[in-house]
Automatic annotation (TrEMBL):
<dbReference type="Pfam" id="PF07919">
    <property type="entry name" value="Gryzun"/>
</dbReference>
<dbReference type="InterPro" id="IPR012880">
    <property type="entry name" value="Gryzun"/>
</dbReference>
<dbReference type="Pfam" id="PF11817">
    <property type="entry name" value="Foie-gras_1"/>
</dbReference>
<feature type="domain" description="Gryzun putative trafficking through Golgi">
    <location>
        <begin position="632"/>
        <end position="1211"/>
    </location>
</feature>
<protein>
    <recommendedName>
        <fullName>Trafficking protein particle complex subunit 11 domain-containing protein</fullName>
    </recommendedName>
</protein>
<feature type="region of interest" description="Disordered">
    <location>
        <begin position="95"/>
        <end position="116"/>
    </location>
</feature>
<feature type="region of interest" description="Disordered">
    <location>
        <begin position="869"/>
        <end position="888"/>
    </location>
</feature>
<feature type="region of interest" description="Disordered">
    <location>
        <begin position="454"/>
        <end position="482"/>
    </location>
</feature>
<feature type="domain" description="Trafficking protein particle complex subunit 11">
    <location>
        <begin position="325"/>
        <end position="605"/>
    </location>
</feature>
<dbReference type="InterPro" id="IPR021773">
    <property type="entry name" value="TPC11"/>
</dbReference>
<feature type="compositionally biased region" description="Low complexity">
    <location>
        <begin position="464"/>
        <end position="473"/>
    </location>
</feature>
Length: 1231
């Protein structure tokens, strides 16, 4: 849209002039037209400007608002305002309202004066028959504002009133209805400001909506918010101003009278505007004013009405096509159409916008064919290209949301307005790439038509042979070349001698095409339209070649060449053109490697043969200077070449140690008549158990044309290789290929290792004095199946998997025996495994051993061979291993022993022992043979146990907190002797352990012990009674339960400590296998018992029993009930004993015990059982009288409890032989 006059296509928004800002930020004045210098009105003020800091802030703010007003984006309903703002100092000039009569004209007293922008004024460029130009639009957009806003500092009210009144008087004299708005800035606040503002408003007769106040003390955010509110309030005022102008234009149209000019025309055609011409002007003005008001529906209707009048028979048909007014009318039609299309895009009617664009193109084409110079010339194609570019630029500046590159949308769906119609594809709005490419096609047609211009028309007028001499006094007749030049349409484009001059530089058509194609390509690429982007890039490269823009051409084509899109889609002609264009750019820019790569591809016979081209790769770099020898690496993925290859094995399977025949077939599809190519070497990559095969060139005249060439392969070994297998195979053969020749290379490949072998790729090496090239061909699953060649014909026994070979391992004859592999192993026990390696081969073998031990706990081990140890190394995933332990040479029938020591495991686990013996026979050192053996070593827990912690009565008395003398003496002794003896409460417990062996064999338990920390939670802990084991140990049979008890005593260090203590004892068992012997290793297994809480603050009731052993009272039992109060509260307990039929009772049936803090009391009952050898149940109930809670009675020795309560064991009757003497009788504690 650069070819259209400035301002004619701008987005019209209400125009505001802001006065009172710093002069250095003032925007430049628009250029004045002819006739505007005289009669200008200057708006001036003598009051000072705002301070620089505030002025700079306001200028920046208004610049942002103005930039948004110039934007072509859609005006949404949520947008409060949109303005064009111009900042000035204290002066601004307005154009004259009426033009002056030219001095050359005779004075006519009654002559009416008109606007200097009107075609009725002689000073106007439109006088006398012009329709409309951009100056009128610029008048309302840049010269005459809707609002004149003045910023003042609130200081002197009198001077301020006078200045405002002068400003309003000057505007009244100008005839313009510009609204005056006053914005005051001050430091005062409160009611005084309101009074001053009201005084200023009344003194200047301002509207209440035209005066505003801003406090200077406000922050930048608050000032910006206030200015937003002011502009929002002024927007309705500005809209009303333009509504009045539009109403005035419609009123003048309704008169139906064509106004008369100030001075009648006397020169030229003496034609003035008719009534339809004036109706067009009025409709055009009404449309522009509607756009100022952002009323797009009204603007569209007025524009369409003006457009129909313009292209009707009363306006355009009356203008001669040779007149400049013809092109002005076409320009107005373009401007109206562009504005109509833009309005449709703003309103979201994309399909209507495309229809409007096409409609204007069709109507202008009809008009130019009927009354113009026709459409078969470069001028029409130039306009077509411009019109397509206008559509693309409109879409870019309007920013249509649905067609952004991020949306990946190619075109928009039809609008709701046209949903019922059947639209054609080109009536949908496509993205801008479509329009730019359309413009490029029209530019290409423009160039083609421009090149058909005759030479006599391409001469400039001064250079034309028929041009008149400068000394001639009479006007020359029109020349023949001038009449021919008149036949060309020059609307918005140069004349023929400037479009395509005979001498000199004319229009750069190629660059114009390149610009459009690059813009289109960027849009296609952004939407993943890669084929269209590649096609456009190829077109662009042709134009770049005509401009010799080799670097840009190379940067454009090389990505296409590397992407190989044309090749994969089978576009041979496009690929060929791409290669030749790229080669030309590479030659000019000195990219020798790219030249070689392109020549390599162009050797293929599928391309057309170029006349007088050498088709010799050796001559590719002739005439190209290179600083170093190029090295080119290619592959069939990106650059499919004229050579192809296939690889096949003779059989599907074979065995290690044997040889397998294989064939490599080479075929050349080079251009017929091209120079034969001789490769330096070939390299076949084989994966799996086979090594690469390298074939070098060796000239041989006798078998150059033989269909099958047999070669011998030699094995090569690396010097520093750890194994003894070959690193590669090497052979020699004639590697010359003629166009259309197939060469088959056959060889026997020795097989050394087992596994699946596959031929993956073949690399051709071409080395000469000019360059080094390597080309890799990959063998794929999709390749054609090949057979085995036996002669010149096709291959036989075609197999699709011919490039695969299954190499079976050579059967190993070395045995690996682990005698103890099936043995049961236990935790905390070191594992010893004896490994026997026996050689059953017919000859001696060199043997290496690899041990890999896997387990969840990451076991460590060591290997002992002939007294030498080797430790395993940590690996991944909890594995340790050793590799390559040499065992030396083992003769046939001999064996070697290896001892493996594995560290004890702390928890049950499973070890996987992997033994790998790799060896080779002395007669065949290149063929490795492998024997593997795996053993699962299960490690389980030898013992499992369960535990009970039962109460016992502490025999020692509790310390009393009320014994002051005793506490003082204990403290003094502790201070004097540094004694740390426990002085707090004490409790005694019995840990009952029941353990069993889960081994598959008998284990010998040599010792039992219970351990725990000596000091836990401020309490001293000790084991007063340990489990006893008989001399010689206990033989623990599998799945047999054994019992062991241990007494634990816990006492607080301080009597003031009330915290509970958590015990964590452990059962330690010392054991060994029963067959280990006296000197065998002793293993120690520690079993965690768990955690138990003792010495709490809750009261505890203990029951203990004593048996009378004297003959006077046989069977009498003493039942003691002990209540402990470890808390710091005074507690009261009630005891009740119910009578029973099983025993006689002596004691208080109901009693009450009062316990002081940190104390315990005991009450005794005498029981005479009436039964023997059974448990009796005393009906004892202990109740806390405060909480009414029944306490559980804890049994001690000789007792137990169940759900119903306490049970006391009554031993069987004692015979006289077993009775004790009455004199020595004692109370025996219950067991």
């Amino acid at each position: 849209m650069d070819g259209y006059p400035a301002g004619c296509l701008d987005h019209n928004a209400p125009f505001i002039v802001v006065s009172g800002l710093s002069a250095q930020q003032q925007q430049p004045e628009p250029q004045s037209g002819v006739g505007l210098e005289d009669g200008r009105l200057l708006l001036r003020s003598s009051l000072p400007l705002l301070d620089d800091r505030l002025s700079a802030f306001l200028v920046k703010y208004f610049a942002q608002v103005d930039a948004h007003g110039m934007s072509w984006t859609t005006v949404s309903r949520q947008e409060p305002y949109r303005f064009r703002i111009k900042t000035v100092d204290r002066s601004f000039s307005l154009p004259p309202r009426r033009a002056q009569v030219p001095q050359s004209e005779e004075s006519i007293p009654s002559a009416p004066l008109h606007s200097p922008f009107s075609p009725l004024s002689p000073a106007s460029a439109l006088y006398p028959d012009g329709l409309m130009d951009s100056k009128w639009i610029r008048k309302h957009q840049d010269m005459v504002p809707a609002i004149y806003a003045c910023f003042y500092t609130l200081e002197d009210d009198v001077q301020l009133k006078a200045d405002i009144n002068d400003l309003k008087s000057t505007l009244a004299k100008s005839g313009y209805k510009v609204r005056v708005v006053i914005i005051l800035l001050g430091d005062a606040t409160g009611g005084s400001v309101q009074e001053r503002l009201e005084s200023i408003r009344k003194g200047t007769a301002l509207d209440p909506k035209s005066i505003f106040y801003i406090s200077k003390k406000s922050s930048a955010v608050e000032i910006k918010r206030t200015l937003d509110g002011i502009l929002t309030a002024l927007y309705s005022t500005a809209v009303e101003y333009y509504r009045d102008l539009g109403r005035h234009a419609r009123k003048k149209r309704s008169r139906g009278i064509a106004p008369q000019p100030t001075v009648p025309p006397t020169t030229g055609t003496s034609r003035i505007l008719s009534l339809p011409d004036w109706n067009f002007r009025y409709d055009f003005k009404a449309a522009v004013f509607a756009e100022f008001r952002q009323e797009m529906d009204a603007a569209s209707r007025s524009f369409e009405q003006a457009y129909e009048i313009l292209l009707g028979q009363d306006v355009l048909d009356t203008i001669p096509s040779w007149s400049p007014r013809w092109n002005e009318a076409r320009l107005l039609a373009d401007v109206i159409s562009i504005r109509c299309v833009r309005i449709q895009l703003w309103m979201g009617h994309t399909s209507l916008a495309v229809r409007r664009w096409q409609s204007h193109r069709d109507r202008i084409s009809d008009v130019v064919d009927r009354r113009g110079r026709g459409t078969n010339n470069y001028g029409w194609q130039a306009w077509e290209a411009r019109w397509a570019t206008v559509m693309a630029q409109l879409m870019e500046r309007v920013s249509i949301p649905g067609l952004t590159p991020a949306s990946m949308t190619l075109f928009l769906q039809p609008d709701k307005v046209v949903l019922g119609e059947r639209l054609k594809p080109w009536e949908l709005l496509h993205h801008t790439g479509y329009w730019y490419r359309l413009a490029a096609r029209h530019l290409d047609a423009r160039r083609a038509l421009a090149r058909t211009i005759p030479d006599d028309v391409r001469h400039a007028p001064v250079d034309s042979p028929s041009s008149p001499s400068s000394s001639s006094s009479s006007p020359p007749p029109p020349s023949k070349s001038a009449s021919k030049a008149y036949a060309y349409d020059t609307y918005l484009c140069p004349v023929p001698y400037r479009e395509y001059p005979l001498n000199g530089q004319g229009v750069n058509h190629a660059q114009l095409i390149i610009d459009c194609l690059l813009a289109a390509r960027s849009q296609f690429q952004a939407r993943d339209q890669h084929r269209l982007a590649a096609e456009v890039a190829l077109e662009c490269a042709r134009e770049m070649a005509s401009l010799a823009a080799w670097d840009d051409m190379l940067a454009l084509l090389q990505p296409l060449y590397d992407a190989a899109a044309f090749r994969s889609d089978g576009w041979v002609h496009a690929t060929e053109e791409l290669c030749w264009l790229l080669r030309q750019a590479a030659v000019e820019t000195g990219h020798a490697d790219l030249v070689v790569a392109v020549d390599w591809e162009l050797m293929n016979r599928k391309f057309s043969r170029r006349h007088r081209w050498h088709y010799d790769l050796i001559k590719s770099l002739d005439g190209i200077k290179t600083s170093s020898k190029p090295i080119v690496s290619l592959s069939d993925d990106a650059s499919p070449a004229f050579v192809s290859a296939s690889f096949v094995f003779l059989t599907k399977e074979s065995k290690a140690g044997e040889k397998c025949a294989a064939q490599l077939a080479l075929y050349s599809a080079a251009m017929p008549g091209s120079v034969p190519i001789t490769f330096s070497s070939l390299r076949v990559e084989l994966t799996g158990s086979l090594k690469p095969v390298v074939i070098e060139h060796a000239a041989s005249g006798k078998d150059a044309d033989a269909p099958i060439n047999t070669l011998l392969l030699d094995e090569e070994f690396a010097e520093a290789a750890a194994d003894e297998t070959p690193s590669q195979l090497r052979g020699r053969c004639d590697l010359t290929l003629k166009p259309g020749q197939r060469r088959v290379l056959e060889a026997a490949i020795p097989l050394r290792a087992a596994g699946l072998a596959e031929a993956t790729s073949l690399t051709f090496y071409l080395n000469n004095d000019s360059f080094d090239l390597d080309y890799t061909v990959k063998f794929r699953e999709t390749d054609d199946a090949v057979g085995w060649y036996t002669g010149p014909g096709a291959g036989r026994n075609v197999r699709p998997d011919g490039r695969y070979l299954r190499v079976q391992p050579r059967p190993p004859k070395i045995r690996i025996d682990v005698p103890d592999g099936a043995r049961q192993f236990y935790t905390d026990e070191g594992l010893k495994l004896l490994v026997e390696i026996s050689n059953d081969e017919d000859e001696a073998a060199s043997v290496k051993l690899a041990v890999n031990l896997m387990g969840s706990l990451g076991p460590l081990f060591r290997v002992v061979i002939d007294g030498q140890e080797r430790n395993g190394e940590d690996g991944d995933r909890g594995a340790t291993s050793t590799t390559g332990i040499p065992l030396g040479t083992i003769d046939s029938g001999a064996s070697r022993s290896v001892m493996i020591h594995i560290d004890p495991a702390e928890a049950p686990t499973t070890h996987e022992l992997q033994l790998r013996v790799s060896y080779h026979l002395e007669s065949d050192t290149a063929t490795p043979i492998v024997q593997e053996q795996t053993a699962q070593l299960s490690v389980v827990t030898p013992f499992e146990a369960n535990y009970d912690l039962v109460s016992r009565l502490q025999a020692d008395p509790w310390p009393s907190p009320f014994d002051a003398d005793g506490v003082l003496e204990a403290a003094q002794r502790e201070t004097a002797t540094s004694d740390t003896k426990a002085r707090g409460l004490a409790q005694r417990w019995c840990l009952e352990c029941r353990y069993a062996s889960f081994a598959v064999e008998d284990l010998l338990v040599l010792g039992l012990d219970v351990t725990m920390a000596p000091l836990v939670g401020g309490a001293r802990c000790r084991v007063s009674k340990r489990p006893q084991v008989a001399n010689g140990g206990i033989v623990a049979a599998p799945k047999t339960m054994y019992k062991a008890d241990a007494d634990l005593e816990v006492q607080k260090l301080s009597l003031d400590d009330r915290q509970a203590v958590t015990l964590a004892p452990q059962l330690v068992m010392r054991w060994q296998r029963s067959d280990a012997g006296a000197d065998g290793p002793v293993n120690t297994t520690t079993l965690p018992v768990g955690q138990y809480t003792v010495l709490g603050t809750e009261p505890r009731v203990l029951a203990s029993v004593l048996h009378e052993t004297r003959r006077t009272w046989p069977g009498l039992m003493w039942l003691d009930i002990t209540i402990e109060n470890p808390s710091s509260h005074f507690l009261t307990f009630g005891l009740s004993m119910e009578p029973s039929d099983e025993f006689a009772l002596s004691g208080a049936k109901q009693t009450t015990l009062h316990l002081l803090p940190l104390s315990r009391r005991t009450t005794r009952y005498r029981l005479l059982p009436l039964v023997r050898g059974v448990y009796v149940r005393p009906g004892l109930v202990v109740r806390d009288k405060y909480f009414q809670k029944v306490l559980r009675v804890m049994p001690t020795e000789g007792m137990k409890t169940d759900k119903e309560g306490l049970l006391v064991w009554v031993p069987p009757a004692v015979t006289e032989a077993k009775a004790t003497d009455s004199d020595s009788g004692k109370l025996q504690e219950g067991k």
